Hints:
139 residues; Elongation Factor Tu (Ef-tu), domain 3; 2 domains; Cbr1-like_FAD-bd_dom; FAD-bd_FR_type
Amino acid sequence: MSQYQEKTTVLRVEQFSSENYRITFRSPDIARVARAGQFVMIKAGQGKDPLLRRPFSIHQTSSSGQLQIYFKVVGRGTDMLARVKVGETVSLFGPLGRGFQIKKSGSSILIGEGWVLHLCFFWRNQFAVIKKNGNVTGI
């Protein structure tokens, strides 16, 4: 599978609580090939601070080239990412990981609770596109 390093533009920053955020990026190459279960590595700051990229699960993608991540602020790197502004440029590398293989027929069950629930949105959307016959049940 193809991987890309993109200089992306921040399109939207949403804060859901004091520590939970969703950021939407303009990332056409990564959004086009990403699958549920994959992640991107994000450089949150400028220069060498922070030195290492941070991994984030892909929350959603769109056919218009948008990619979303949903995350909780747990340290300095995620705090820096939570402070980005609309219009800023952020470096993304991905998609990484194997993703999930979805069979075209048969039934599927998505099970999740707590923090993992945000990942179910991307899975559910891909199930709906790929499945031609069968049901998708969320629990």
